[in-house]
Every structure is written in C-alpha cells, then in structure tokens.
C-alpha cells in the first residue's frame, strides 16, 4: 500500500487539485492510502480538521474514487508539522498544494510548500492551485 500525506489548508480548489493528483496515481483505488493533514496555527475554538472545507472536500473526492482516507489534525508551524507527521506515519510521499506567488512574496513571506520540498526526506508531489 502506497501511503500519501496530503497537507491541506482551507482552500477547496487547492484541496481538490491535491486529491485529484492522488487519484491520478497508478491503481489509486486499490493500492493508495491517503492521510489528510490540517495543521492549525491558531485554534481557540477547538475546531476539528473535518470542519475545514478543504479537508472535507479532499476526503469526499478521494473516497468517491475508492481511496482509503484518514484525517489527521495537529497544531504548530505548518511546514514542521507536515514533516513530523510524514515521519511519524512513515508515508511514502507528501502531497502539497502550490500557488502562484511573486518572487517578492516568496522572499518576504516564505512558503510552506517550498520549505517542505527543500527539507523533506521523501518524495514530494506538488499539485497546482486548482485554478484555471
């Protein structure tokens, strides 16, 4: 079983693009398992990951395609959490959502996806932002 960790934020279009990237893997309906991770940076109300639209959308899409899913929630710096969960769950691949950013925006604000790509010790699948 090939285990993929999807690092999801609130954006439904990006979550859908990530789910579709996993569905496009060979034999995804029988040989792929997906852990859907949402990292809360601030969660004073105690929300669960399934209350996040992007997580729900990805789970529905994957399950409709026959992919086994599990939801994981954590809190902390998103890039660090993604890398830690990837190790803890011994996933084969991490799937992150990309988005278009200006060079200045990348320099000023950083990028979770970029940080994961550069520091992960396993393959990273980058899905588009889901926008045409």
Automatic annotation (TrEMBL):
Residues 3-126 form the UspA domain. InterPro entries: Rossmann-like_a/b/a_fold, Universal_stress_UspA, UspA. Belongs to the universal stress protein A family. This is UspA domain-containing protein. It comes from Haladaptatus pallidirubidus.
């Amino acid at each position: 079983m090939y285990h993929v960790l999807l690092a999801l934020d609130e954006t439904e279009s990006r979550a859908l693009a990530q789910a579709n990237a996993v569905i496009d893997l060979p034999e995804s309906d029988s040989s792929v398992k997906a852990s859907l991770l949402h990292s809360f940076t601030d969660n004073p109300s105690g929300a669960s990951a399934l209350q996040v639209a992007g997580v729900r959308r990805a789970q529905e899409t994957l399950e409709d395609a026959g992919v086994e899913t599990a939801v994981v929630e954590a809190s902390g710096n998103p890039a660090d959490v993604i890398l830690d969960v990837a190790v803890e769950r011994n996933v084969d691949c991490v799937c992150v959502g990309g988005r278009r950013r200006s060079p200045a925006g990348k320099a000023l604000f950083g990028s979770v996806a970029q940080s994961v790509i550069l520091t992960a010790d396993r393959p990273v699948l980058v899905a588009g932002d889901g926008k045409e």
